[in-house]
């Protein structure tokens, strides 16, 4: 009997969205692992790594736009802060990590890239249950830039559902340690899909709005901006919105935001390194204000992208 390998007959490959894809294919990009630069398909970790077994890891993601890193220093600060809090050590200092990130992007050739640095607890050579025996592992990679919102969603605004799932509280995990504890966020995402929305927001432990899978949220009411204060990752894009508001003379504060207040806002947007500032125009099936992308959101979106070639906010990738 002759058997065709699944990969030779495209129709037999798993259907992802509307395409049949090879489950073992990887995005085009370059990873750094164990002192080597590798194609993404060859960058593999042990199943015994605590990063995989226990989500014992921290990471950061910075983007490259038009050949320039955006606010790399802030991402490095957050990453090294997470390492210290988790008592992880890596054999590189800030300059060393920055150089690896530059190399990953340069070798990938991407001019718009999603660039991740990460450290896992690692594995213990003796399968010890003591995390101090594990050998921490630093990795990094650069793939093509990806956004939470696609072009159409950026134009007309995202449709969001508010899930009743509760974000892991800060007393359990300090959200300033950027982490892979995403089961709450992923379950929220499925709640959103079940309700025909495109993405989700989940709640903090008091029932106020917290954040979504990979983004913070802002609302605008009577010209004033606010974003949830507690139980959320202090996002670099969130921080950038505060900085832009400072420059523009807009008032922005971190405060509790109830679900009702979010739905009654004049404008809502989300923020992430994966996409920047992205408008939200429907929540739980109802329009926010007139259902159009608002003027404050549009202004901040334009300013945000304009800063990407400003030397105080961005730095060129060292391509060969
Ligand atoms: C849970 C969570 N909140 C917020 C954000 C946004 O953070 P930043 O603006 O630094 O990308 C992210 C980014 O990955 C995230 O994972």
TrEMBL record:
It is an enzyme of class 2 (transferase). The keyword Amino-acid biosynthesis applies. It catalyses: L-valine + 2-oxoglutarate = 3-methyl-2-oxobutanoate + L-glutamate; L-isoleucine + 2-oxoglutarate = (S)-3-methyl-2-oxopentanoate + L-glutamate; L-leucine + 2-oxoglutarate = 4-methyl-2-oxopentanoate + L-glutamate. Pathway: Amino-acid biosynthesis; L-valine biosynthesis; L-valine from pyruvate: step 4/4; Amino-acid biosynthesis; L-leucine biosynthesis; L-leucine from 3-methyl-2-oxobutanoate: step 4/4; Amino-acid biosynthesis; L-isoleucine biosynthesis; L-isoleucine from 2-oxobutanoate: step 4/4. GO terms for biological process: amino acid biosynthetic process; branched-chain amino acid biosynthetic process. InterPro entries: Aminotrans_IV, Aminotransferase-like, BCAT-like_C, BCAT-like_N, Class-IV_PLP-Dep_Aminotrnsfr. GO terms for molecular function: branched-chain-amino-acid transaminase activity. Its cofactor is pyridoxal 5'-phosphate. Its EC number is 2.6.1.42. Acts on leucine, isoleucine and valine. Belongs to the class-IV pyridoxal-phosphate-dependent aminotransferase family. This is Probable branched-chain-amino-acid aminotransferase. It comes from Rhizobium loti (Mesorhizobium loti).
